[in-house]
Amino acid sequence: MSKKKDTFINMVVSLFVITIISGFSLGFVNDLTLEPKAKAKLEKKVNALKLVLPTFDNNPVEDVLLIQVENIKVSVEVYPAYQSNEFVGAAIIGSTEKGFSGLIKIMVGFKPDGTIQNIAVLEQKETPGLGTKMKDEKFLAQFRDKNPASYNLKVTKDGGEVDALTGATITSRAFGEAVQMAFDEFVKNNGSLIRLKN
Amino acid sequence: MAEKVNQTQNFLKGIVKENPVFVMLLGMCPTLGVTSSAFNGLGMGVATLFVLLMSNIVVSLVKSQIPSKVRIPAFIIIIASFVTIVEMVLEAFVPFLYEQLGIFIPLIVVNCLILGRAEAFASKNNILSSILDALGMGLGFVVALTLLGATREILGSGSLFGLKFVPEDANTFILFILPPGAFIALAYLTVLFNKISIKTT
Questions:
Q1: Domain that holds residue B123
Q2: Quick check: ipTM above 0.85?
């Protein structure tokens, strides 16, 4: 069990063999996990959809519409929901960069008349214990069954109707903005969504 | 390295006498970064335990084949491969934990605990001692992270493993969930741990 000598050829060969083996084993594991990974991602999306939409019987993930918006680089995803071919609502992913620590991504479910069915937070990096409370029932309940056309989504400090989270006004503002953005997209595309299935 | 290592001692030293977090102060980056809840600490600890165990086994097996001048890059490649495997498996099967731990999973590669054990122990000892060493050290790391996570979670959000025991709107020490709280909690736990372990030995 003597150590190999530090000759040039020894060093090259041993490193080469190690990298080859690790490369192949990583490729193998990647192939194994590719399917479950995609499944886990899809499941998360479907769960969020089930949470924010009324009961539906189509597959919103397949019917997704990608809408290009002027001032945002990525396209907005719109998931329409149908129950026996009748339009029952749509889930729209709203996002904003104005959170306390950047990106906030939420999924807002709308009924056909624009009333908010429910909201789910998809991605956020807010301060734990302060901004993350936007996931709490108490905060989200303010938005349920409200129509942003008549309900001002700004926080009370800015003349709106939303009670901001204690110590997280910036987060609350950003949240309202993301909901507003989702609503604007919903209003713009409402007509095409209803026509889609007919 | 013919000296006989007392295997029980070898296993136990990682948990108490040479606890990687409270005594050797190794791997501070994930220790401070992810322990905002007991569950996160436990998850990170188990992920590290797995990588440590596998890398110790492999390093101990191939130690005689690696010229000593290139041993560090060789160890890093071995460790990085296992970390990537852990990352892919977590993303596929425990997506919740994967999101919580985020950037700290790839950072297990540079956890000096793992490279330290590979360099200081596995490259000089046989496979059985290396496995026991990895298990001991890994368990010590798991215990320390879970303890730290639990302390911060109890003080910071009034819950333990996600089970709340204070009213929804109660005021808790949010400081302990934030990064400064990690340093404070770690310091006090280290004092306590050393005080107790010195007294008992």
A1: 36-196
A2: no
